[in-house]
Every structure is written in C-alpha cells, then in structure tokens.
TrEMBL record:
Protein origin, superkingdom: Bacteria
Protein name listed in UniProt: FAD-binding FR-type domain-containing protein
Any one GO molecular function term: oxidoreductase activity
Lineage: Bacteria, Pseudomonadati, Pseudomonadota, Alphaproteobacteria, Hyphomicrobiales
PROSITE patterns per record: FAD_FR
Family the entry assigns: Belongs to the SIP oxidoreductase family.
Domain FAD-binding FR-type residue range list: 106-231
Pfam families: DUF2218, FAD_binding_9, SIP
Length: 365
C-alpha cells in the first residue's frame, strides 16, 4: 500500500536563489542526506523530504512529510534557516498545499500539573496530564520541550507563522523553554512523568518551577522527539544526573537479552535510583563526594577503565556537561575509533550557564 504524503510548496523571493540553495544544502549535509541537483538540491531526513529549485528571482521549495508533524518539521527547518541566512529578505513568503494557513503547531500539547514529588534530594518528579497522551508513545521519541509560562499570567502559547517559522510569545508573556526526558508514560492514567534535576545554585528557572509546581498549573509541551537508540547487541549508557532519566528509560525499554553497561555520575549515594530493567544490566554509580557538578572527569575515566564488550554491534550514548562531553567524544572517536552513528555524545548543560537548559546547549561537532 502506497503511503500518502502531505505536501506543501512555496516561492521565496531572493536576489541569489542558487546561492541560497547551496547554502542550505551545505548546512543540512551535517544533519540529513543531501543530494545536489542541477537546479538546487534534495534534503532527506527521517521527518521527510525537501526539494530546492532555484529560479531567476525565486527559490522554489517543496516539503513532504508522512503526517502533519513531519510536514511542519520540514517546513519549519527550511523557514528558520532561511531567516538565519537571508534575514528579512526571506520573510515575505507563505506556504500553499497541505496544512496551509494553520496556526496550530501539530506537536504542541497544552497540559497541566497533576502531581509532584521528591525522588532524591536533587531529583523531583513532575506528573503532567492533558493533550493527546498517545502522541507520547516511546516510538515517537523520548524527549519533550517544556514551555513554562510566567507565574501570575494566563499562558500565551507559540503558533505557526505563514512562512513556517514558530512565533514565540515575547516580553511579559515569554516562556521558559527546557528539554527533558519523558521518564514514564501511563496511558491508562493519561499522564507522563518528567524527572527534573534541582541544580545546586537553586536559581535555574526549570529547577525553580519544579520545586514550586502545584496541581492545576498550566504547562506547554512540544514533542516528543529524539533519544531512541538504534538496535544493537550491546549498549553503553553514560552520563551525569541530567542524563539519568533517559539512561533509565532506555535501559528499561530495551529487549530482553541485550547487554547494557550504565555509568551514572551523581553527587553521592543519596542520589542513586533503582532501574527496573529486564536486560543484562551492569550499573555503576560514580559519586562526586563533594565536588561540584561539571568539575570532574569521573565519566571519562570510568569509560576508559571499563572492560568493553567484544564482538557484536555496539552503541554508546553519553549525556553530560559541555566540556566533559567534548573530552568523551574526542576519546571515543580518536582512540576507540567509533563512528558518529555508533556513539551519540550530547552536552546537556554547560558549567557557568543556566544549569537546566538541557538540549538548548547542544555541542556542535
């Protein structure tokens, strides 16, 4: 049976359409499969496909996706990067075709807090309900972006602009935006659990909200997406406490028989949590014992010292502070010879900046 695609098209007036097509292709080659053509290029990703065709005074865009979310992601990626590379020159266009004129973002969910409890001294679980719970199924991704409205004001949520960009509320209505992992999904109860680290400085906006969250508080959720590991015979999952929710979620969701080595850096023994997994799990906790988060090389030393599985296909996932992530990535590539697709290393936060920006501070390779 042939899969039905949603399709949208646009014509963007530009002084140098061919140059812009090449600029876009050169950028997306790091994130998708790009094929240059005589007129421009094709950009293919798990979300869908974009075709760029340069005319004399316009860049013709065609976006394809298997559903409304996929189509929006393709259109949004093109529009946001056109705005970056061309500025106001690319702001006077709109899309025709499927989903044209719709302002609602298809993967946005308005939810509310229904509970919050302390898991450890530095980890708090917030439970949310509302929206389309089925959309948060693990096959769609493990991470969501929480949109926290300012206290004391009715929330103003983002909408889609005619050109495909996301219009975010500003000024007094500006939202706090942070990326977290869905730790647990309960379809029967219609809830999702999000575990949030309470950072040591006590002033990080996400941490402050988690501490004060009360039943009934509104929160926007965008997603889910990302985080799903490829099929492999063995997995190495490593990170500090900001990665603990995704490490636990992956370990608990992998098929029986897989081998998993998990290395988790936390403040001390009080931060350890049970991971109920059916895989062959070797779990090691790394305690900082008084050292501030982001100031040790515990993860790198543990990865260097451990006995790595021999044979079979392996996959490594690491999430930690920016500088630690750079060191681990360099070692995995240069000394262990692991290809990019086999070793996913992400900077979840950066020492000296807001501690819970999560994927906002992703390292660029």
């Amino acid at each position: 049976m042939t899969e039905t695609l949603l399709v949208a098209e646009a014509r963007v007036p530009l002084a140098d359409p061919r140059g812009m097509a090449e600029t876009l292709c050169a950028h997306f080659v790091e994130h998708a499969h790009v094929t240059r053509t005589a007129e421009g290029g094709l950009i293919e990703s798990p979300f869908g496909r974009a075709e760029l065709r340069a005319g004399k005074a316009h860049l013709h865009l065609r976006a394809e996706g298997v559903d409304a979310t996929a189509l929006y992601v393709v259109k949004n990626a093109l529009a946001e990067h056109l705005a970056i590379f061309a500025g106001d020159a690319a702001s006077r266009f709109s899309w025709s075709g499927d989903q044209a004129g719709q302002h609602r973002i298809p993967f946005f969910h308005e939810m509310r807090v229904v509970g919050a409890r302390q898991l450890t001294p530095k980890m708090r679980r917030v439970t949310l309900a509302g929206g389309d719970i089925a959309a948060f199924d693990g096959e769609a991704g493990l991470h969501v972006r929480l949109l926290i409205p300012p206290a004391g004001r009715p929330p103003v949520w983002p909408v889609a602009a005619p050109d495909g960009r996301t219009l975010w509320p500003k000024g007094e209505d500006a939202l706090i935006r942070r990326v977290y992992t869905i730790r647990r999904l309960d379809p029967a109860a219609g809830t999702i659990d999000v575990d949030m680290v309470l950072h040591e400085d006590g002033d990080a906006p996400g941490s402050r909200w988690a501490t004060r969250a009360q039943p009934g508080d509104p929160v926007g959720v965008m997603g889910p997406g990302g985080g799903l590991p490829p099929d492999a015979d063995w997995h190495v999952l490593a990170g500090d406490e900001t990665a603990l929710p995704v490490i636990a979620r992956i370990a608990e969701g992998l098929p029986v028989g897989r081998r998993v080595i998990a290395l988790v850096e936390v403040a001390d023994a009080a931060e350890e949590q049970p991971i109920a997994s059916h895989v062959d799990l070797q779990l090691r906790w790394l305690h900082r014992d008084g050292a501030p988060a982001g100031t040790t090389d515990l993860l790198e030393r543990a990865l260097r010292a451990m006995e790595w599985p021999a044979g079979g296909r392996g996959h490594v996932m690491v999430g930690c502070e920016h500088h630690a992530a750079r060191a681990v990535r360099s070692w995995l590539r240069a000394e262990r010879g692991m290809a990019k697709q086999d070793a996913q290393v992400a900077a979840y936060w950066r020492l000296g900046r807001s501690g819970d920006t999560a994927a906002e501070e992703q390292d660029r390779e």
